[in-house]
Amino acid sequence: PGEQISENFIESPSIKKISFTGSTEIGKKIVNHRYWS
């Protein structure tokens, strides 16, 4: 699932920043908030 989600992140321009910082704690928090909250 993670790989498919990552691809969806790349598809969205506003998500590029998140995917770029996805390896950081902030990136993970943003992703979790937007997609799992």
TrEMBL record:
GO MF, one example: oxidoreductase activity
Protein name according to UniProt: Aldehyde dehydrogenase domain-containing protein
Organism field: marine sediment metagenome
Positions of transmembrane segments: none
SUPFAM superfamilies found in the cross-reference section: ALDH-like (SSF53720)
Pfam families documented for this protein: Aldedh
Domain Aldehyde dehydrogenase: 2-32
